Amino acid sequence: GENVEQHPSTLSVQEGDSAVIKCTYSDSASNYFPWYKQELGKRPQLIIDIRSNVGEKKDQRIAVTLNKTAKHFSLHITETQPEDSAVYFCAATSDTGRRALTFGSGTRLQVQP
Amino acid sequence: EAQVTQNPRYLITVTGKKLTVTCSQNMNHEYMSWYRQDPGLGLRQIYYSMNVEVTDKGDVPEGYKVSRKEKRNFPLILESPSPNQTSLYFCASSWTGMNTEAFFGQGTRLTVV
Questions:
Q1: Torsions phi, psi for B84 (to 5 deg)
Q2: Which residues of chain B lie closer than 8 angstroms to A43, CB-CB?
Q3: Residues A4/A23, Cβ–Cβ less than 8 Å
Q4: B9: which chain A residues are within 8 Å (Cβ-Cβ)?
Q5: DSSP E strand boundaries for B42-84
Q6: Parallel, antiparallel or unpaired: strands A107-112 and A10-14
Q7: Are A67 and A2 in contact (CB under 8 A)?
Q8: Shortest Cα distance from A37 to chain B (angstroms)?
Q9: What are residue A112's DSSP bridge partners?
């Protein structure tokens, strides 16, 4: 089955700096890669996703890049703000089989004001 | 408002006492799923359902049951809870699989003593 590894487990940045979270996956059949943000005590919420036919996607201060050959994808947050503080999860799945998301172990991002 | 609703939000129970966590969605989604979240492990799929009367095991199904008699409801049943089932549980729904945007419930924090 799919295995997703995520690094780092914790990340502390100063407000205004950039943050990068990296994930690798094992199953070459995976073709959908979402990122979820989970604030303390809340549910995971989708913030951005990318499909395997695209190398990069951007939404305001958030961007995701995908390298299919190397089987890794990354989340980039620019101009970080205190409200970006949360746990971020990467995930992977495919269009076949049980279409379940396999999640990384999460990154706790702390943005210091 | 489009949403996934879980109940209860918090539950403390004793070993062996059967319990049910309910999940309901109002988006007419075909795919529903249960995940458990444990520190350092991310979210892991317990069971999923691709449509009414169609359910199957995820990555960690032992000790759990589900049913899908109606499209909107997908209850999680613990017939004989044990302390290792103490966890944070999330129900999720999506159109045809987790390869499309998944919406999560508020979560149920279960403690088995």
A1: -75, 0
A2: 90, 104-107
A3: yes
A4: none
A5: 42-51, 54-57, 65-66, 76-78
A6: parallel
A7: no
A8: 12
A9: A14
The tokens for B24 are 């309901």
Q: Which tokens hold the place of A39?
A: 């604030």
Find out whether B57 and B68 touch, Cβ atoms under 8 Å: no
In the predicted structure, residue B40 carries a pLDDT above the cut 90: no
Q: Report residue A57 as tokens.
A: 């996607």
Residue A80 is predicted with a pLDDT of 98
Report strand pairing: B103-104 vs B31-38: unpaired
pLDDT above 70 as % of chain B: 100
Q: Which two tokens stand for residue B86?
A: 């103490």
Closest Cα of chain A to B23: distance in Å? 14
Specify which residues B16 forms β-bridges with: none
Mean pLDDT in chain A?
94
What does R_g of chain A's alpha carbons equal in angstroms?
14
Compute the distance between CA of residue B43 and CA of residue A91 in angstroms, rounded to an integer: 9
Between B40 and B44, the more confident residue is B44
Q: With an 8 Å Cβ cutoff, is B7 touching chain A?
A: no
